Amino acid sequence: MKILLVPNYSKDEAVQSGLTLELWLTRQGYDVIWAADKESKIASREAPAIDGCELVISLGGDGTLLRAAHLVGRREIPILGLSYGHLGFLTAASPQDRDILAVVSDALAGEMHVSRRATIDCDVHVASDDGTEQVITATGLNDMALARGPLSEMVEFDIAVSGHHIDRLRGDGVVVSTATGSTGYALSAGGPIVSPDFDGMVCVPIAPHTIQARAFLTSPADVIEVTMSHDRPSQPAIAVDGQFIEADGTVERVVSRRGAADILLLDYGPESFYNSVSRVFYGVRRHDR
After folding, report:
1. Is 62 a catalytic residue?
2. Which of 6, 78, 126, 221 would bridge 264 by S-S if both were Cys, CB 3.0 to 4.6 A apart?
């Protein structure tokens, strides 16, 4: 069995825990590989062969887990998140509340709950200077954010869902997120906290210049299309899971839909999500209850 470790190399505790895990797993007959990192001596200089892995372990915060999800792509390999970050909302456990070796042992024994998380596929349509159109595709676990660029005061755009026009908006942009991403940028923009079992998308305007615009949820089959207005031209910044997309030309529209594959996160049951919600967003600790 091959296991991929994805640590946050900037955190010594995460790297040391990874080395401890590697020694422990190797002694039990597992083949351990590390995600590449240019600044680390222990990381491979080439991208690891993730094909054939049966488990991915991220050691860091939510950003590290997102990186692990991007490495997994559409393979649907289970990901175990171990928290060495600030929030660790998506992770299953931290060394402060559970023994890490025991958690990994539970994962290997199949004793952890598998949470299927919907992803988001995005097509960014870009008009080149020569009149041709380029389509840039990206997949995320959290969200797609279209926001005003550094040189524009605001962006104006139309939102349509499955061919039905919703509104034309002016403001700082819009976030289209999965249920998993509802607790990220979408929440900061005023969106709701959504259970990870929800398979649709969350659409949240960012600082709209109207009091009538509201966040809304879509069905799993819906397609959200954000089209830039030609009446007020602007070049937005577009990011998927926080990674900006380089567009060589003018962004015309962004089409978002439910991803073709899910991300499998390991946890200790559905209650893990609500425990994390109370801990991270309401400041509730178990010893307070």
Report:
1. yes
2. 78
112 and 124 co-located in one domain: no
Helices 12-27 and 100-108, axial angle in degrees (round to 10): 50
Question: By the 8 A CB rule, do 155 and 172 touch?
Answer: yes
181-240 pLDDT, tens per residue? 999 999 999 999 999 999 999 999 999 999 999 999 999 999 999 999 999 888 899 999
List beta partners, residue 35. none
Q: Verify that 135 and 198 share a domain, yes or no.
A: yes
DSSP per-residue string spanning 55-86: EEEEEESHHHHHHHHHHHTTS---EEEEE-SS
Q: Which two tokens stand for residue 41?
A: 């001596």
Cα 111–chain centre separation: 25
214: tokens are 């509201």
Looking at residue 245, the DSSP 8-state letter turns out to be: P
How far is residue 91's CA from residue 184's CA, in Å, rounded to a whole number? 14
CA distance 29 to 74: 27
* Residues 55 and 126 both lie in one domain: no
173-177 and 53-60: which strand pairing? unpaired
| Catalytic choice (12, 62, 123, 172) | 62
**Sign of the C-alpha dihedral computed for residues 255, 258, 259 and 264 taken in this order:** positive
The whole-model pTM stands at 0.89
Nearest to 182 by CA among 174, 172, 193: 193
pLDDT profile of the chain (289 residues), mean per 10: 95 95 97 82 58 95 94 96 83 88 96 96 93 94 93 90 96 97 95 95 96 95 97 92 92 97 93 84 61
Same-domain pairing of 72 and 154: no
